[in-house]
Amino acid sequence: MKDLEKYGVFSKEVRPALFDYLPIDWSTVFGNNNGIIVEIGFGSGEYLQSYAIKHPEKNFVGFEVSITSMKKAHKRVESLENVRLVITDARFGLREFFGPKSVEKVIMNFPIPWDKKSHERRRVIVPEFFETLSNVLVDGGTFELATDVEWYAKQTMETAKEMGFEVVEFLENPDREIKTRYEQKWIKYGRNIYSLVIRKVKHIEIERLIGGRHEMPHARSVVAEEKLPLLHNKVFKEGKKVVVVKGVYKSTGNDAYLIKVISSDGEFQQHYYLVAYPEEPGSKEWIIKLDSASNPYRTPAVKWSVSVLADFLSSEEEQGK
Ligand SMILES: C[S@@+](CC[C@H](N)C(=O)[O-])C[C@H]1O[C@@H](n2cnc3c(N)ncnc32)[C@H](O)[C@@H]1O
């Protein structure tokens, strides 16, 4: 894998899907073993920039889901050797890209609380998030939250205690050295600010969806070609895995088909393409695999999408029916 691709179009962007092995060995990314601080939802990047300049002896990894924020923040941190940015849902990224006891501190400034019942699924700070923290934080490592939403701060503190964390600090209107864009806005509007610091006291093992070598899943099957159009809009479910086929497209040049898939592992959803084509022209044996231009994380649902589609397409004789 060429480093240029692995590190994305932005010089400080890291694209974990292109790494051969996960969790990432961050010491090779930064070229040193300095302690790691993670910021979730860095927005325009002011906080990350100021913090990283103040602490050149630490490495910083920021997560965002907004590409607009990524572009703005990247301009700020471009020249900083100790910062890397990742465009991924941090709930997934913190668990999958960091090994046990590898992060000193996780920071979250002014997250959207998603208070409506229908939006609850988007919330970052949920019990599973504390399980991830209990694994990836070093012993005594901390999580810091700043918010303008009192119930959110208090609920986070209560859940943290239930999940075995120690509360180090809970302050109303703290005088924070670095103020984020949202913080400045809320202060101007006269809103109260709450800050919470909790410390890990107990390490737990967690299950990661991916891990180890990031291989390309593929399957071989005796395919009944007439079954391919039947895949359209098909939904396959097994446990937390869901695979939905959104489209099936036949190539004009040969017998290959492109299959548009959305798969979910619980809350984590990915969009990508699979390809299906005869091993030799005219052969009944087909290969079904990820399209080379698609690069989803090889989660259980992604691996399963290849095998479940291969089974579906398999001719009845092959299945012994
Ligand atoms: C209200 S803004 C706060 C931005 C910045 N921290 C500040 O205080 O100015 C929340 C940010 O979190 C990002 N975000 C929301 N959910 C996220 C997730 N699951 N993973 C990473 N970033 C997320 C949003 O895109 C948005 O930029």
UniProtKB/TrEMBL annotation:
GO cellular component, one term: tRNA methyltransferase complex
Keyword set includes tRNA processing: yes
Role description: Catalyzes the formation of N(7)-methylguanine at position 46 (m7G46) in tRNA.
Source species: Fervidobacterium pennivorans (strain DSM 9078 / Ven5)
PANTHER family in UniProt: 3-DEOXY-D-MANNO-OCTULOSONIC-ACID TRANSFERASE/TRNA GUANINE-N 7 - -METHYLTRANSFERASE (PTHR23417), PENTACOTRIPEPTIDE-REPEAT REGION OF PRORP DOMAIN-CONTAINING PROTEIN (PTHR23417:SF14)
Protein family (similarity comment): Belongs to the class I-like SAM-binding methyltransferase superfamily. TrmB family.
Protein name: tRNA (guanine-N(7)-)-methyltransferase
Top-rank taxon: Bacteria
Keyword check for Phosphoprotein: no
Pathway(s) per entry: tRNA modification; N(7)-methylguanine-tRNA biosynthesis
Binding residues annotated for substrate, in chain numbering: K116, D148, T180, R181, Y182, E183
UniProt keywords, alphabetically: Methyltransferase, S-adenosyl-L-methionine, Transferase, tRNA processing
GO molecular function, one term: tRNA (guanine(46)-N7)-methyltransferase activity
EC number(s) recorded for this UniProt protein: 2.1.1.33
SUPFAM superfamilies in UniProt: S-adenosyl-L-methionine-dependent methyltransferases (SSF53335)
